[in-house]
# Entry
Amino acid sequence: MEQTLTEKRAVARKALGIDQEDKLILSLDGGGIRGIMTLQLLKKLEEIAGIPCYQLFDMVAGTSTGGIIAGLIASSKSAAEIEELYIKLVTKVFKKKGLLANRTINPPLYDKVNYRNALREVVGDITLQAACTNSEIDLLITSKDITAGEETFFTCFQHNGKFSGTYKDVLLRAVMEATMSAPTYFTPLERFVDGGTTTYNNPSLSAVMEAVHYGPKDKYDLGKLTMFSFGTGTSIEFINPNDTVNPKGADVLFWLDLVMRESSQDASDMQNNLIRSGLIPKLDYRRFQLSLDTRTMEKLPNKRIEPIKKVDAEWLRDLTDQELKGIDLDDVSKFSLMKTIGEAMVDYIMDEGHAFRKDLCDNRKRDLLVTAFGDVERIKEQMSDPKWLDDFES
# Structure
């Protein structure tokens, strides 16, 4: 006799070590083409669970490329189906306008025609409510309203046959376009730009807040939540201290570039630290993230990579920090590399023996695969030395 969905969910929860009474939330970071890494993790998660994400989870939240994946999950697509659609979508989206396209002097870099057509083809003209009705999953996708100067959470919740959410009746593809309208890459959707421009590129905390405080009454209990949060790989910026005094290139551009890249990562780190600190009691938080640097590659199983232009490495552990740092959010040529890194991360998780059953962090609550935490001993020595301080260029 075939199992009911309720029975399948119970088996999946047991396989993943999840309390049978908990509500499950899936949170997906932004990150451009790096989202292909997330999909490798989701495919393995579904394999272990025995059911697709839209049947396993009660809610899915996403930002930017994570919002695209979240929208497709809400459209009742499995991770394998999403990967196939995602590859087609990304290769269509990241086609430059022409030889004159330049993010600095002639933005935006990409035309939205292909993007919009691809979304129409994939999801049609269904609303958030229609998608969530079919998949029976709650949805949150983030964007930035530059007119109001605040983040916008496009949500749709259902409980006891009733739906809620200010924007539950808007087109899903409009929301998916809004969340991935990164400045200089794409034109805004009227007033909306990429959700990754807010502090919610990692939407974990916003998902908890929306579910518990603004979602249906009595559906989500803070003491009975399990959250799976997936990153897309963070590029740690290693800067020689001398470059902060004598930056390479124009001073303002050096600092602007640094701030733009680091602010989103700092916000994500703050959320992870807050959630892991115990200030949100009883939340079963499972974060899966890595840094794109050689120290992390040394921890992963060494996999052969497909040939890539301007990359000499044949294996993951042969990659340099500069090559890993160069995996830009729109660099389609690195698509296969990010997929291989995702597959290696899956193997690492499985080799650790917990198969997504716990948070991927050490006993200090630091991500096991995010390796850069500063040069503490050198800093302590320097900043305890009056001569070093007095001699340092001001």
